[in-house]
TrEMBL record:
Keywords: ATP-binding, DNA-binding, Metal-binding, Nucleotide-binding, Repressor, Transcription, Transcription regulation, Zinc, Zinc-finger. Binds 1 zinc ion. Residues 49-139 form the ATP-cone domain. This is Transcriptional repressor NrdR. Signal peptide: none annotated. Belongs to the NrdR family. It comes from the Bacteria. InterPro entries: ATP-cone_dom, NrdR-like_N, RNR_NrdR-like. It holds the Pfam family ATP-cone. It comes from Pseudoduganella danionis. The keyword Repressor applies. A zinc finger (unnamed) spans 3-34.
Length: 156
């Protein structure tokens, strides 16, 4: 680690502790050249895969776009904010654990549809109608029938 004061490359670790939040390691260091002390933090860097769009262009994954898509489909639906946050975390976790450096936008769309199907059937139909580019009423009916198959029968 370079000393921030004299740029010397040799520093000595005096103390190591886990941060209060538990998400970083704090190290107290001393430069062997100028004898000044400073603190460094080590944090985990999670790198989300790039998104490959249908036209072949690549863009960075952003959770804000994901949130906006989910919220648009869930607009005026009785789904709590923590459930939306959990869905976003679930999608991000699947992307991170996939181990891929690039993912097709279609894969993310499928993950969103899985989460919406679980959260709210109407929001699922809304998203699917745009995502799958429904052309006629028959495609809506097929999607509704698909959601209906997952439904548990009501007790009389």
């Amino acid at each position: 680690m370079k000393c921030p004061f004299c740029q010397h490359e040799d520093t000595q670790v005096l103390d190591t502790r886990v941060s209060e939040e538990g998400d970083a390691i704090r190290r107290r260091r001393r430069c062997v050249n100028c004898d000044k002390r400073f603190t460094t933090y080590e944090r985990i860097e999670l790198v989300m895969p790039y998104v490959v769009k249908k036209n072949g262009s690549r863009t960075e994954f952003t959770a804000d776009k994901l949130r906006a898509s989910l919220l648009l489909a869930l607009r005026k639906r009785p789904v709590a904010a923590p459930a939306v946050d959990a869905a976003i975390l679930s999608i991000e976790e699947k992307l991170l654990t996939s181990g891929q450096r690039e993912v097709e936008s279609g894969y993310i769309g499928e993950l969103v549809m899985q989460e919406l199907k679980r959260l709210d059937k109407i929001a699922y139909i809304r998203f699917a109608s745009v995502y799958k580019n429904f052309e006629d009423l028959a495609e809506f009916q097929d999607a509704i029938a698909e959601v209906g198959q997952d439904r548990k029968p009501r007790k009389a």
